[in-house]
User: Which sequence fits this backbone?
């Protein structure tokens, strides 16, 4: 059977702009879920996640990684869940892990996740995000659910790149990915914009 | 105007939707329900000063907030989750 691979959220992508100020890539093929603790079950959920995933579910807008999985705090007792193992076996095992302690909604086809970096990342993002992404206000591991150019989005900061430049990831509804790309490519153009890991089918 | 969400932190007004004052909905089963609803809809207090109101953090954590706002200055005096 031919392997079914997920397609990009952007059906066609302009190739960026000359210069090396900003980079972007789409993190394709991720298992994405939203997870909400059931009433009175948060403690039980936390201990199961801690034991099986080696991760402490954040109690604030934050990004944490565990074993082959990552969590972003979206709201009280609500998280975004990501894994590179987007397989039926993973979805089934995660569902059975949280069992009656949380409700899970598969969003693998609902959201798109982009990773942005480069020395001028913050300058480009500041044109659309109304929150302060300066390093003093938004540390590695911090997250925020907000808007970017009128599009609802969640942004979190990962560890800096080896050259010291900041690295962010942004999730948003997949159906709005082209609108996001339109804003982002225009905003980053003056610094130069490079696609990394450009999917072969684009 | 900025509103401090207990979960997300201080955010711009554009992330929120205003729902109205905190006054409880009248009991539709009360014998004088018609008068109570008339008063709740048309005879609201309109205080010049602190006002308790509901805001929805639509473009954030999607939580409902109880906000105490000074209607003269838009100063936000206090915020909490509506369910807390
Ligand atoms: Zn909030």
Assistant:
């Amino acid at each position: 059977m031919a392997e079914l691979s997920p397609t990009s959220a952007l059906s066609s992508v302009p190739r960026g702009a000359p210069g090396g100020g900003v980079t972007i890539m789409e993190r394709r093929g991720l298992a994405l879920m939203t997870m909400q603790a059931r009433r009175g079950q948060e403690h039980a959920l936390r201990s199961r996640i801690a034991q099986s995933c080696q991760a402490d579910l954040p109690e604030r807008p934050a990004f944490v990684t565990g074993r082959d999985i990552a969590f972003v705090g979206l709201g009280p007792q609500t998280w975004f869940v990501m894994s590179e193992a987007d397989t039926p076996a993973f979805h089934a095992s995660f569902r059975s892990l949280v069992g009656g302690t949380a409700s899970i909604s598969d969003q693998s086809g609902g959201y798109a996740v982009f990773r942005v970096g480069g020395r001028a990342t913050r300058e480009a993002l500041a044109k659309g995000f109304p929150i302060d992404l300066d390093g003093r206000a938004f540390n590695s591991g911090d997250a925020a659910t907000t808007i970017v150019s009128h599009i609802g989005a969640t942004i979190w900061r990962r560890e800096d790149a080896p050259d010291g430049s900041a690295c962010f990831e942004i999730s948003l509804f997949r159906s709005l990915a082209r609108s996001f790309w339109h804003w982002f490519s225009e905003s980053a153009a003056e610094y130069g914009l490079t696609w990394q890991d450009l999917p072969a089918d684009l | 105007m900025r509103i401090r969400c207990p979960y997300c932190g201080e955010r711009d007004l554009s992330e929120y939707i205003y729902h109205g004052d905190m006054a409880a909905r009248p009991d539709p089963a009360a014998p004088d329900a018609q008068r109570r609803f008339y008063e709740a809809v048309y005879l609201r207090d309109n205080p010049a000063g602190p006002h308790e109101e509901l805001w929805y953090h639509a473009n954030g954590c999607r939580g409902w907030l109880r906000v105490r706002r000074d209607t003269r200055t838009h100063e936000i005096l206090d915020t909490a989750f509506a369910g807390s």
The pocket of zinc ion is lined by residues B 5, 7-8, 57, 60-61, 63 (CB under 6 Å). Chain B has a mean pLDDT of 95.
